[in-house]
Amino acid sequence: MNTLKEKGSKEKEESTAQLNRILSIFDRLSKGHAITKQSEATNFHVNEKTIQRDIENIRSYLETAKTNYYLEYNRKEKVYKLETDDENYLRNEQILAIVKILIESRAFPKPDMDELIDKLTNLAQPTKQPFIKKIMSNEKYNYVDLQHKQSLFGLLWELAKAIHTKKVINIRYKREFDQQDSERTIKPVGIIFSEYYFYLIAYQSKIELDFPTIYRIDRITACNITSEHFKLPYKDRFEEGEFRKKIQFMYAGELLKVKFRFNGPSPQAVLDRLPNAYKLSEDEKGIVFEAEVFGKGVKMWLLSQGENVEVLEPKELRDDIQLSIKAMLEKYQK
User: Which Pfam families did the record assign (predicted)?
Assistant: First the structure.
């Protein structure tokens, strides 16, 4: 009787030890670590055949559970690794690229940026994380956040909910040179990030305009989502992708067609900056482009191209740029 009891107790201990061993191996594999039969056998004080059975049990589980992972033996390195064919997971090089873009955007104050970078880095394979952290450490240290230094996550989320549910919002808004903020009642339709800042795109609640107003989100000092719903005609529905093609430097205004001649070194840069531009003609003087844009923010980009651009139409914009060039010239002549 005692012999049977001792035998049952021993089998239970062995079963528990096997389970703990398999879970330990699988946990390290799932975190990106590589293992060898020899090192695992030494670690758990068992022979390599026992570790081989553990590996087969893990393989069997992965196949039965129909996961996107599989256990692979790397003959060159002589190690076992957990691999995946699931393209939904971020690869190490993708994480590095995203982190680089985040830092260049300067979109968030330093504490928020550091937190985001750390969380993204932790999504990489553990064996690759030190490499990514080493690359980014200097850039994190020298990161300079924007002057407003505001954490915007909460406000961005509240605005996104108001946009999704089409609810009128009351905001208090303070422009850079205003002495105090003022109240606005608006219909939010979109959020766009451009040139370091997040912007809220909204229509006025009490004034009917053919184009939306643009608010810098870090200048919103208070926000209250009302229970009032709003509707926009289908033809006037806001599409962030289309709006982004037609807006420059987030200057709102009426939609206008701009025609200009470009003779710079990179016509491709024109199409990258103005995605809806198209080529009308080309000769020895350059390429004539036409594009639809909101407002006169495009004027800033056209002036930045210097002698590589000549505005042809509309006449009002051509005359406006001539006046700006004249005023610039006068400053240098003085």
Answer: WCX, WYL
